[in-house]
Amino acid sequence: MTEEITCGNCGVVLSEKAIDFGPENAAQTMDEYQNSARTGQKISLKMADMGLSTIIQAQDRDSSGKSLSRNNKQSFYRLRMWDRNSRSANTKQSFVKAFTFLDGMRSKLGLPEHVVEKSAYLFRKVEQKRLLHGRSNQSVLCAVVYMACRITDTPRTLNDIADAAGIKKKVIQRVYRLLSANLEGVNSVSYSPAEFIERISSEVTVSEKTRRDARKILQFGQKRGITSGKHPMSMAAAAVYLAIRDNREKVSQTRIAQASGISAVTIRNRVKELQVAQRK
Known about the structure:
The protein has helices at 30-35, 70-90, 93-109, 113-128, 137-151, 158-165, 169-182, 197-204, 208-223, 232-246, 253-260, 264-279; strands at 2-6, 13-19. It has 280 residues and is mostly helical. It has 3 domains: 1-42, no CATH class; 93-182, Cyclin A, domain 1; 193-279, Orthogonal Bundle (Cyclin A, domain 1), CATH 1.10.472. Strands 1-2 form a two-stranded antiparallel ribbon. A hairpin with a 6-residue loop joins strand 1 (2-6) and strand 2. The longest helix has 21 residues, at 70-90. The N and C termini lie far apart (64 Å). 24% of the residues are buried.
């Protein structure tokens, strides 16, 4: 941040573009902004106005603490009213509702801040492309959250998002395919099965050795090309089950199916494929 040093008597600029090496204290509330911080609140895409709204506080005193005159009180009252009305008129209601819903999704799914910001950025991009017409904001937001998770390599499945939002998985899948075809420069890669090993292992409570063995089994399957084209969660569940059986831990296949959200039949099929590859 640059600043100027001026003379208090005559106003001559003694030094300009001087660099201030002090800390950047970004204010989180308006009180912090007025008291100590010099950078204001941070800009956030997850806010409808990006955090750049003007705030005229309802105080009838000037900077020195003196009460305002009656005419000034009426003037500031009108300014506050106009400011409030202009903000409600300019702020798109779709953003307000969608980002309120996004806050709920963040708390339910435990999403990090960068994933939330990426989701808000993608939602704004969808609105610019006019892809919201005829579709609910909730379904579109679920699709962009899933897309942001895949872009940032944050392991969250469609089932997780559908359960958190209370929306059918097929609806989110349909919207996701539409957005993937129409949004340019958005490349979401597939999840690696290894990303779900820790999640399943924590759910069923297995030892650290079992977790390491499960990762080794997956690496072997990836080298043989078994994991390609398969659901990453199903491959992770099969690897965890094989590692549990090799280490003789008492965890049933049904429990693994419940923890992963994959049917026991699918897990058995993936287990057979990994076993056949190990024999070769």
